[in-house]
Write a sequence for this structure.
C-alpha cells in the first residue's frame, strides 16, 4: 500500500511538472516567434533602404556626369537621364553672379547645378558646377 501511494504521489508530481514545462515552453515560443519576425522585418527594411540609397547615389552621379558631358547651355536646359520606376529627378541651374577681374560676368561662364533625386524612402541632393570651355 505504501508503494502504491508513493507511485501516485510521484506520478502526480511528474504530470504537474510536465504541464508546467509545456506552459513555459509555449510562453517562450510565443515570445521568440514574434521577436524573430520583427527582427527579420527590420533587417529586410534596412537592406531595402541601403539598396535604395546606393541606387540613388549612382543615379544622381550619373545625372551630374551627363550634365558635365553636355554642351554648355546659357539657359541651363540640360537633358535628364532616364530613371527607374519610383524615382523622380529635378535639376536646378543657377548662373553664378560673380565677375572676373577683367569685368567678364561669371554667369555666362559658370553655372551652379543642383540635382534633387527623390526615391521611395528619401531624397538626395547634389551640387556641382558647369563651366563653359
Amino acid at each position: 500500500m505504501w508503494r502504491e501511494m508513493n507511485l501516485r504521489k510521484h506520478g502526480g508530481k511528474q504530470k504537474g511538472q510536465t504541464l508546467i514545462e509545456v506552459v513555459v515552453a509555449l510562453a517562450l515560443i510565443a515570445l521568440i516567434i514574434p521577436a524573430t519576425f520583427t527582427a527579420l522585418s527590420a533587417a529586410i527594411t534596412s537592406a531595402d533602404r541601403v539598396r535604395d540609397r546606393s541606387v540613388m547615389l549612382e543615379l544622381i552621379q550619373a545625372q551630374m556626369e551627363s550634365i558635365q558631358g553636355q554642351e554648355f547651355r546659357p539657359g541651363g536646359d540640360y537633358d535628364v537621364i532616364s530613371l527607374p520606376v519610383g524615382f523622380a529627378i529635378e535639376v536646378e541651374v543657377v548662373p553664378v553672379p560673380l565677375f572676373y577681374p577683367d569685368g567678364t560676368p561669371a554667369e555666362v561662364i559658370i553655372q551652379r547645378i543642383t540635382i534633387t533625386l527623390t526615391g521611395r524612402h528619401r531624397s538626395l541632393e547634389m551640387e556641382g558646377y558647369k563651366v563653359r570651355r
